[in-house]
Structure formats: C-alpha cells, structure tokens
C-alpha cells in the first residue's frame, strides 16, 4: 500500500503502515483544542471590559478560572474513561457542542452568577480534550508522525489565545463583548458539525464500565501530573491577568492589552510545535525541566516589566515559548509511555493535574492584583514554575537511573 494512496469512499490518506488518516485531521484536532479552552482566553482578554461592564472584580475574575478548571480537574479522570469507552468521534463532537453552549451562556450572562455557571459547564470540554484528541492520534497516525501532530494540535490551545486576544478582542470593540463571545459560540457549533462529518464512525460503545486500572509502577503519569499542577498554576495566572496588568498597571488600552494575550498565543503555537517535534523518546524526559527553567525566566521578565514597560512583550513571548510548551511535551511523553488501552486515562490524569493548577493559581494572583501588587504576583508565578521544574528534574533523573530514558 502506498503512502500517497487514498480511500475511494472518503478521500482520506492511507499511510504505508495501513493507518487511514482522515482528511484535515490535524486541523480538526487543533480546532477542538482551541475551543476546549476558549472561554479562559476570552475571559482573560476581555477582562478589562468585564471588570468595567459586568461589575466583575479582579478576585472574581480569578474565581471564574477556578470554577472552570476545578470542574475540569474533577471530571478529567472520568472523562478519560468515557473517551476510552465511546471513542474519539463522539467525544470530539460533544466537546465542541458543549463549548458552544458554554460560550453562548457566557455571552448572555446578566451577572456573575450565570457567568460562573457557564464557566463550570465549560469545564467538561476541557476534561475531554486531551483524552479525545490523543486517542484520535493513536488510532489514525503512525508513530513517527505522532510527535508532530501532537505538537500541532496542542498549539490549538494557543491558537485560541490568539483568536481571543486579537480578532475577538477587536470584535468586542465593534460588537460589544457579548457579541464577540457570541461569534465564538457559533463557530464552536460549526466545528462540531465538521467533526461529525469528517471523522470515521466510532465502534459501538464498550459494554460495561471501563476498568480503573492504575498506571504502571514505572509510569511517568504521577510525576507529569505533579509537574502540570504547578505549571498550570503559573500559566493560568498569566492567561487571566496579563491583559489586566497591561491595562491597569501599564496604561494600555483594552485592545492593546488584549494583544498581549494574542502575542503569547502565537509564541505558544510556535513553541508547542517546535518542542513536540524535537521530543524524541531518548531526550523527551529532560524537556519538561528545561522548559520550566525558561518559564521561570519569563516570569522574572514580567516582574521587571512593572518598571521597564516594553519588557512585557518579551515576557509574553517567553511564557508562550517555554511555559505553554510544557503541556504539549507532557502529552507527547504520555503517548510514548502509555500502556495499550490506557492512553485516554493517562492523558486525563495528567490533564487533571494541569487543570487543578489552573484552578488554584489565578485566585492567589487575584488577591495580589486587587491590591496592585503585580510585581509580587509575577514573583509568585516564578515560584510555581520553579517547583514544576524541580518535580520534572527529579523524574528525569529517576527515569534515567531506571534505564527508561533511552527507550523508544
């Protein structure tokens, strides 16, 4: 069978190893990842408008992130088992449809109560995103290409950041913030229809419950979950408060402040693709510690930007290249090391750690932001990244001693 071949019925590419790759699979998975966390970036990019227009305080803005990602952290283990049971197509369609519903409710929220409820609903697609997309890659993409496809689809999260920070933030100037969120909701429903039509049908759902098998004793999952906990706490604080920092402390207008999130998003796309492509099995275990070290430096740059304002742009780029890329490399490691049949569950457990960090980080930062102590806030973020790096380094050293670091 030739790698350039296609199936007669679907036009999907067929690889030399016999994998049938649906046309546009990478683009679809990237889109799904973008919408899974779109609400986070919209709330961050539109933060100045929400504070002024909806009466949302800085602390409550952080609480929205806590509610959304707290829900995602609680649901992630169950979400992984559900994906292993029902298949990636059903899970991706549900992910995108629920994302559209949550965005629509955010746009219609008359006050903080419904806003928080809508954000909680948005935790479900976050819980499904990594298990569903990773499962789709393992089912359809040959092993040599999985790192590249994983990096591309993980960059979808940062594509969502770019969309929220630039075109949607600009649209908010024309349509109002509710109109901009409504545009995002319609796009999510359109993507759900795309997924339903583009992906091959899943087999019938497995009868009974999927077993809750624990990770193997030498699995990196517990370590990667701990790394992701502290990494997520720092990233979520940056995502939620970077635009508000630009507007309140650096005197930027709302659109320019939102562009900071877009810049972070573009840098994150490049970082996730580049680092994931480079994450060969022999060297990938060292990447999380390396990226965490760069993330510490990015937070320090943001702290210095309190006094040297142009450095905020440098800090935003560095957060994208280093901190944001850590999650993509974690998912590459999960797929390299997961036992057969455990990809969805392992992805979900690592994602649960990441989401728990997203839930914890912003409220702590918000307490400092409400007092105008952004410098202290960025120092807190640097400390969170430092702990993440320590966890990653300990695991990489242990992995090398046990002889797993050079496996393929």
Distance between the termini: 25 Å
Count of alpha/pi helices? 16
Give me the count of strands: 3
Largest sheet: 3 strands, antiparallel
Integer count of domains: 1
Give the overall pLDDT as a whole number: 85
How does the helix and strand content classify structurally?
Answer: mainly alpha
Determine Rg (CA atoms, Å). 20 Å
Shape descriptor reads globular
Q: In the CATH hierarchy, what is the superfamily?
A: MFS general substrate transporter like domains
CATH class: Mainly Alpha
Read across the widest sheet, the strand sequence of neighbours is 1-2-3
Helix content: over 70%
Assign the CATH topology. Growth Hormone, Chain: A
Structure in words:
It is a single chain. The chain is mainly α and 408 residues long. The chain is built from 16 helices and three strands. It has one domain (21-199, 218-401): Growth Hormone, Chain: A (Up-down Bundle). It is 76% helix and 1% strand. It has a three-stranded antiparallel β-sheet, with no helix packed on it. Strand 2 and strand 3 form a beta hairpin. Residues 1-18 have low confidence and may be disordered.
């Amino acid at each position: 069978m030739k790698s350039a071949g296609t199936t007669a019925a679907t036009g999907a590419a067929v690889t030399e190893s016999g994998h049938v790759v649906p046309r546009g699979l990478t683009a679809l998975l990237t889109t799904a990842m973008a919408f899974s966390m779109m609400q986070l970036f919209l709330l961050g990019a539109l933060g100045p408008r929400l504070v002024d227009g909806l009466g949302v305080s800085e602390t409550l803005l952080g609480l929205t992130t806590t509610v959304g990602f707290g829900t995602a952290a609680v649901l992630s283990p169950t979400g992984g088992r559900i994906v292993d049971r029902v298949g990636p197509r059903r899970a991706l369609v549900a992910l995108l449809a629920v994302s559209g519903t949550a965005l629509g409710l955010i746009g219609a929220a008359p006050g903080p109560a419904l806003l928080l409820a809508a954000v909680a609903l948005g935790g479900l697609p976050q819980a499904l995103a990594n298990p569903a997309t990773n499962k789709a890659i393992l089912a359809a993409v040959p092993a040599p290409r999985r790192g590249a496809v994983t990096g591309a689809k993980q960059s979808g999260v940062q594509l969502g950041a770019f969309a929220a920070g630039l075109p949607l933030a600009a649209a908010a100037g024309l349509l109002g913030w509710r109109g901009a969120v409504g545009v995002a909701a319609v796009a999510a429903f359109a993507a759900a229809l795309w997924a339903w039509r583009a992906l091959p049908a899943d087999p019938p759902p497995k009868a009974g419950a999927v077993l809750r098998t624990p990770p193997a004793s030498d699995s990196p999952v517990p370590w990667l979950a701990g790394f992701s906990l502290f990494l997520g706490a720092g990233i979520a604080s940056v995502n939620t408060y970077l635009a508000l920092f630009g507007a309140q402390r650096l005197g930027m207008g709302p659109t320019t402040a939102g562009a900071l999130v877009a810049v972070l998003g573009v840098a994150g796309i490049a970082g996730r693709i580049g680092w994931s492509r480079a994450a060969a099995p022999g060297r990938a275990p060292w990447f999380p510690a390396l990226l965490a070290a760069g993330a510490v430096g990015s937070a320090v740059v943001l702290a210095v930007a309190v006094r040297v304002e142009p450095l905020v742009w440098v800090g935003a780029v560095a957060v994208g290249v280093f901190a944001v890329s850590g999650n993509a490399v974690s998912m590459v490691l999960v797929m390299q090391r997961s036992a057969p049949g455990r990809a969805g569950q392992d992805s979900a457990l690592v994602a649960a750690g990441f989401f728990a960090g997203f839930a914890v980080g912003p409220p702590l930062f918000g307490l400092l932001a409400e007092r105008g102590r952004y410098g202290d806030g960025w120092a807190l973020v640097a400390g969170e990244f430092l702990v993440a790096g320590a966890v990653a380094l300990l695991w990489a050293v242990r992995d090398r001693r046990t002889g797993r670091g050079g496996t393929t």
